[in-house]
Every structure is written in C-alpha cells, then in structure tokens.
Amino acid sequence: MSGRDQVPPAQEGVHDAEEAPERAFFGRRKGKRLRDAQERRLAELLPALRVTVPSVGTLDPATLFPAVSDLREVWLEIGFGGGEHLAAQAAAHPDIGIIGAEPFVNGVVKLLRAVDEQGLRNVRIRDEDVTALLARLPDACLSRVYLLYPDPWPKRRQRKRRFVSEGSLAEIARVLKDGGVFRFASDIDDYAGWTLARAARCPDLAWTAARADDWRQPFPGWPGTRYEAKAIAAGRRPTYLEFARRARG
Predict the structure, then answer these.
(1) Which of 95, 148, 149, 244 yields a CA-CA distance of 20 to 30 A from 161?
(2) Is 226 a known ligand-binding residue?
C-alpha cells in the first residue's frame, strides 16, 4: 500500500500554532425555537439528569448512576449533537453509564426525548462546556471517550477553536483507564490529520489501527448518525480513529 493508503491524510496546517490552553465553547447555545414538549422535557427531565461540577475536589462519575445497580463502566461523549449515537449506545449497554456533554440546547432536547421514550436510566447530561467536567474527573475513571464529528473550524484563523489539542488529549488520556479508548470521527480530512498528528505527540495514547480499514470502517457496534449520512451523501468519506490509553508505569 502507498503511504496515503496506510494513514489518514494529514493536510497542510496540522502543525500550525497550537490552541490556547484554556478550552472554551464556541457557537450558538440555542437554534430553532423549542416546541412545548421540548420545553417541558427541559424543565422536568434535565434537572434530574444534569451533571453539576463541584467547585473543589473531584467528581466520581460512578456516583451519577444510582439506578444502574450493576454498573460496569462509565463512558463520555463530547458534543453529542442530536444524541442518536449516545442513545443507541445507552440502549445497547444498559450496564454502562454514559455522560453526554453538549451545550447546544436543541441537541439536548433531542437526547431528552430518546431518554424519555426509551426509558434510558444510564444517561447523564452535561449541558455546558465539557472542559470543567474533565478537570474535575479523577484519574483513570472512564473506559471510553467519544468525540464524533466535531466542528472542524476550517479557516486557519479559527483552528485554535478546535476541541482537539495537545492539552485536551492529555486530559482525555488522564481520565481514561489503562486500555480505555478515545474514539474520534470526522468527515473532514484536515481535522483527521490534525487529530492524528497531535495524538502522535501524546505519550499516553497509542493509535490502534493496524491496517487502512481500521480507520476507514466504522467502529464496532456503530449505529451511525444523521450528520454522517449527510456527509456520505455529499461525497465526504468519514475517518474513524481510535487511540488506546497506554498502561501507567
């Protein structure tokens, strides 16, 4: 195979100036006007599911799921969009607690609908920027972290806004258990290359791909997303990257 066949394309600019160390949410918090049922779910369901970050100390994520008596693991999805991937994973793995972080209100209400209609008891929601949550999680507390189709901020001057940075990857590696995985998907080649380049500089993460199909094919048990379907229909081929947390010394 050629080098292009072996690794995702790392396009021009992946070594541009690194992002600012303080992460922040960029973008709208609310889009389309909410319907009455959505407003009711926000008022009635979200308070019980909301993840509140303590001002001091750490937050043990396992304590967020008292209704899951046989809790096996805790996962985190950063920026869950419409929530279809998170809801599918929660339904398929009722013994795994899943925290979804999404500051966009319209995405939150879509996930709340799935939680309500499917009776999902293993979902918790952080409806603010995920940075503060990551900072308060203890070391080695998560088994899996997802970042799926994040905003690519394609213009060069905007790239400092991308969530993936050396600092954010270090935080993700810190909260992952040994052998835990970070899964990233994007239909933007530049962002895939950007992520791969930064992960290569993270000593605690190892890219798990052994052949090209490992990053061309979706992750096992992948339910797909509406955004992904639109990207494929538009002719953009997604890239799926998985990195495993190396064993601590």
Answers:
(1) 244
(2) yes
The pLDDT value given to residue 16: 40
Closest Cα partner for 149 from 66, 58, 220, 232? 232
Distance CA 108, CA 34 (A): 11
Rounded distance between C-alpha atoms, residue 42 and residue 108, angstroms = 8
Annotation marks residue 151 as catalytic: yes
Confidence at residue 218, expressed as pLDDT on a 0 to 100 scale: 96
Q: Is 228 annotated as a binding residue?
A: yes
Q: Would the annotation count 127 as a binding residue? A: no
Please give the Cα distance from 200 to 242 (Å, whole number): 12
- Name the pTM for this structure: 0.87
Cα(85)–Cα(218) distance, integer angstroms: 12
DSSP 3-state assignment of 110?
helix
pLDDT digits (tens, 9 = 90+) for 60-86: 999 999 999 999 999 999 999 999 999
Q: What is the largest CA-CA distance in the chain?
A: 55
* Polymer length of the chain: 249
